[in-house]
Design goal:
This protein is mainly α and 338 residues long. It has 15 helices and no strands. It has a single domain, classed as Orthogonal Bundle (ABC transporter involved in vitamin B12 uptake, BtuC), CATH 1.10.3470. Helix 1 packs parallel to helix 14. The termini are close together.
Length: 338
């Protein structure tokens, strides 16, 4: 795949532009919504906060919280997708397509309906567990057979596990109809109605996983040259793969625990980024973090206005963007990472 920003200086400038784009998306997310609030009033909500002003309260609580959560979740899903595409060498790999999101969501639904769990911290660990089990199952099924792990087999395994956990989730809804309303909160995939109390428990893990991913860029580049070459250069490839898998589980599990099942961000963003900077993961990961956060913020802003006064779940908006992209990649017949 060719890249537009082929010089290091261009990539640095591009990184700055992406950061400014993220800032713009964040400002729009805080400023725009069903309640018409001017940019001046939005600014005053932070510089001259008035606790008696309804507009200031909306900006500093609902909208600011929503923007912060969208930023963290968008970044996490994009990085997880980039890591999965490198780990599996499959351009169709992403947390939602390989069953990781479905596994985390099913375990949360199971905890709510069967065990009546209502602790936000518990949701985080339950989502991690579900994401981890789903990931292990996909890699196990994708590795069975004479040829071992292959891009096609892992996609088929991911589709099977996704369908399995989705059917389990639907089965629980049929059994316990009284819990449907609380469960739809997670199934819809949305940053609306969430609170910072839901984000804080996962934030240290997301930050640590993101930081680790940044430092793995050079090692991932070596791994992508071929496992035999990487081992010849002294790389502990198995340790690196396990580390990448753990990071994906943390990032995807955290996203499900906070915002539910939001799809296609992890699929689309790495391809956009590679079109800009090429396959060098020293640049792919930081670019993915910024572009993923910006994409989810813009999607959330658009979702507020399509069917006003109602809102479209952000998972629907990302699917609207990502589904045609998925079809395009599948039709191109790509079976290995660029």
């Amino acid at each position: 795949m060719g890249n537009i920003l082929y010089r290091k200086s261009y990539k640095i400038i591009g990184l700055v532009v992406c950061f400014l784009l993220l800032c713009t998306a964040f400002i729009l997310s805080v400023s725009l919504g069903q309640t018409n609030i001017s940019f001046r009033t939005t600014l005053e909500a932070f510089t001259q906060y008035d606790p008696n002003s309804t507009e200031h309260i909306i900006v500093t609580t609902s909208r600011l919280t929503r923007a912060l959560i969208a930023t963290v979740i968008g970044s996490s899903l994009a990085i997880a997708g980039a890591l999965m595409q490198a780990l599996t060498r499959n351009p169709l790999a992403s947390p939602d397509l390989l069953g990781i999101n479905a596994g985390g969501l099913f375990f949360i639904v199971l905890a709510i309906t069967v065990f009546s769990v209502n602790s936000l911290t518990s949701y985080m660990w339950i989502a991690f567990l579900g994401a981890g089990i789903a990931g292990v199952l996909v890699f196990f099924l994708g590795s069975v057979g004479r040829d071992g792990l292959s891009p096609i087999k892992i996609i088929l395994a991911g589709a099977a596990i996704t369908a399995l956990f989705a059917s389990f989730t639907q089965g629980l809804l049929v059994i316990d109809e009284q819990s449907i309303q609380s469960i739809l909160f997670w199934m819809a995939g949305s940053v609306s109605g969430r609170s910072l109390e839901m984000l804080f428990p996962v934030l240290p893990y997301v930050f640590g996983a993101t930081l680790c991913a940044f430092f793995l860029g050079r090692s991932i580049n070596v791994l992508l040259t071929g496992e035999d070459v990487a081992k010849g250069l002294g790389q502990r490839t198995m340790f690196l793969k396990i580390a990448m898998g753990v990071l994906v589980i943390i990032l995807a599990g955290s996203s499900v625990a906070v915002a539910g099942a939001i799809g296609f961000v992890g699929l689309v963003v790495p391809h956009i980024v590679k079109g800009l900077v090429g396959p060098d993961y020293r640049w792919v990961i930081p670019y993915s973090a910024l572009v993923g956060a910006s994409l989810l913020l813009f999607a959330d802003v658009v979702a507020r206005f399509i069917i006003m006064p109602q809102e479209v779940p952000i998972g629907v908006m990302t699917a609207f963007i990502g589904a045609p992209f998925f079809v395009y990649i599948a039709r191109k017949g790509l079976t290995k990472d660029d």
